Amino acid sequence: MSGFSQNSINDAKRGHKTGLIKKMILDGIPEYGRAEVWKSLAKTRAYRGKHFVNPPNFAENLPKEIYRHLLSFGNPETDKEILKDIERTFPNCQVFKKSQHVRKSLFNILHAYSLFNPDIGYCQGMSFIAGILLLYMNEEDAFFTMISILEKNNLKKFFSPGMEMVDRFCYRLEKLIKIKLPRLYKHFKLNNITVDLFGVRWLLTIFSYDLTPEAVAPIWDIFLLLDKNPVLSIAIGILEMIETHLLSLNQDKILITLQNLTPHLNTQNLAKMLIE
């Protein structure tokens, strides 16, 4: 358990001392403080107070209580897709399995975002992003933090129709593997492992599909701290960390490992690798 005091958490809450937050991530953020650190790094409060451009679905300026306003509108076709995906979101997590209230909050966030950003609407993967946030903060904070996360390095573009930007991400990741991890690159080629088999899920869920919620939280600490290409940086860091193990495996076991990362990662060492 980290030895950080409540004063440290309060400094993070006020957006103070980036160096302190970095140290907290390296040492391990206490669970009770993670929400405040994430909201600070994501600048959630700035988004809550921002004057949003009016989405085209609405004829009048959005009111100050934008979240509650969005929830008052229907979106039947999209809502059907959201409800289907909620049942598939963290199926082994007891919080989501047992709590109707949490599932309702997850639905509300995704419904509101689909109306807030109608050019993108709702896409698969978003339920995992919103779900992780709900484990650490209230529904409305999770909504605004999700907006911030999807704005970070323009991640929302990966959810645009056509998936062209996702293909571009996979291309860049493959090139980085070839340059930084040439032995692993050759091993993937020999075993017909293409980057899209794992990279798409890592990108669109920010690693939360292939890690347990408890294991992915420290990954998100790193993701929110890094300013440039955080998903690419973390993906390469993960592959570098488990490279030796992957080199000993054949095709099927490589895929099983890449799609079930939790037993193979030391997230504290990953943080040191990426941000020290």
From TrEMBL:
<protein>
    <submittedName>
        <fullName>TBC domain containing protein</fullName>
    </submittedName>
</protein>
<dbReference type="Pfam" id="PF00566">
    <property type="entry name" value="RabGAP-TBC"/>
</dbReference>
<dbReference type="GO" id="GO:0031267">
    <property type="term" value="F:small GTPase binding"/>
</dbReference>
<dbReference type="InterPro" id="IPR035969">
    <property type="entry name" value="Rab-GAP_TBC_sf"/>
</dbReference>
<dbReference type="InterPro" id="IPR050302">
    <property type="entry name" value="Rab_GAP_TBC_domain"/>
</dbReference>
<dbReference type="GO" id="GO:0005096">
    <property type="term" value="F:GTPase activator activity"/>
</dbReference>
<keyword id="KW-0343">GTPase activation</keyword>
<feature type="domain" description="Rab-GAP TBC">
    <location>
        <begin position="28"/>
        <end position="227"/>
    </location>
</feature>
<dbReference type="InterPro" id="IPR000195">
    <property type="entry name" value="Rab-GAP-TBC_dom"/>
</dbReference>
